[in-house]
Amino acid sequence: MTGFPRARTAVVGASTFGLGECPGWSSMEMTAQAAHLALDDAGITLDQVDGLFTALPDDFLGGLALAEYLGLQPKITDNNRTGGSSFLCHAIHAALALDAGMIDVALITYGSNQRTASGGLVSALRSSVYETPHRPMMPVGGYALAANRHMHDFGTTREDLANVALAARAWANKNPEAFRQGDMTLDDVLSARMISTPLTARDCCLVTDGAAAVVMTRADRAASTRAPIPLLGGAQTVTHKEIAAMPDLTVTGAAITGPQAMQAAGITPNDVDCVQLYDAFTINTILFLEDLGFCPKGEGGRFVSSGAIAPGGALPVNTNGGGLSCCHPGMYGLFTMVEAVRQLRGEAGDRQLDNPEIAVSHGNGGVLSSQATLIFGSPDTA
Amino acid sequence: MTDTGTEAQFLAYLSEGRFMLQRDPISGRAVFPPRLRMPGTGTPLGDWAEMSGRGTVHAVTIQQKRDAEARAIVLVDLEEGGRMLSQMSGVAADAVAIGDAVQARIVADAETPHVIFEPAGPGA
Predict the structure, then answer these.
(1) Which of A12, A311, B31, B47 is 20 to 30 A from B75, alpha carbon to alpha carbon?
(2) Interchain CB distance below 8 Å, B84 and A197
(3) pLDDT digits (tens, 9 = 90+) for A176-198
(4) B 79-118 residues inside an 8 A Cβ radius of A
(5) CB of A162 within 8 A of CB of A188?
(6) Selecting from 3.40.50.300, 3.60.21.10, 3.30.460.10, 3.40.47.10, what CATH number does the domain A138-204+233-381 have?
(7) SUPFAM superfamilies in the record, alphabetically (chain B) (predicted)?
């Protein structure tokens, strides 16, 4: 008994906006535009939104600012910030509130103009008094330490890490929205500027602008929409904030949320047709595929190097190009949800998979600190 | 010590050149960072105890900022318990590896007092 309202809510609208560079737009405007596009996609008008979920990059009280901007007086405003996983947590909370009848239409939206506005990653991370004096480059340092330990314990190689980036680029080359395209070789990744060993610049996600939104309703109402994507399961956890407090550098909270979400959905990893996960760094993909149950612990490096996650592989991962090659506006989680929805709707263009029925969306926040997993089904499951 | 939170207490000890942590009276293990009570259980923590400063490198990453020397950022497992993020001193960054025995050195006069690590000497 997981308590999750399986298939009783659905995503009925999804959008992206301004991926890559979006000069002349504020983060708020990008967030609102993604919201309008998702509502248009759902065929639902703005005045019907009574649940507002957001985590803006530059406004601690962004939920209030967004309500004002959109002209809404929501029954629920959820400004929960668990980092890049925030929006998957929002979806879980939205499902509960919708199922309980507290709200009828949930809008989850996010946008950031970090690339054109600041030229760098806008990180919400703040170091503690214990970490600050050492001036570590974070968050990359946290992921690099986890990668170092994974390589030591399991024989994972820099080439394995690089193969994650190459698979992401191969998918991005099929996605006209992806910011980084073109050929990339193993040597391009390995010989790129070293940022924090063993991670080079090509092991790190992009710094882009971008916005995304989804609209959720209860299943009864969703049934009359164009292409409802039922939410079958969801789970979230937090295991630490700073990397020194991570219980085990090679096991993330996805080992908790993956099995929980799949149990709620009534599926196993074998049922999954694609995985959209938060690849802030190449090590993320390896860790999450292990922890979500797609390969044994320690085998993630060899799994990705087998070609399994690239176009034509047995388990398509990050079919939009991911944070590594599609877009990374700072908190990427919502983009995993939009890509899962597009694949399940059959709207993914050149990168469309053959009739996928189950998609996993997985978000990460902090330095492997927060993990959240969602399981989506196809319209037929609704 | 004056009556403060444990964070201020830890830093005050460091500024006096003492590396002190609280211990869990049940397991005997030291707790880092300092807490009001045992994380996870909420049970009382024991008195502050002086650490030996001996530890083992659990993970390492080398970072180099523009116009600066490469530095080894490390996670160190303390002999008495607790894992700290820190940096290595007195050794080339690329010579630091998982499993290395290290010894704490207190930097007491910094803006924020802190602990860095050096390779443990012979016989350490």
Answers:
(1) B47
(2) no
(3) 999 999 999 999 999 999 999 99
(4) 83-87, 98, 107, 110-114, 116
(5) no
(6) 3.40.47.10
(7) Nucleic acid-binding proteins
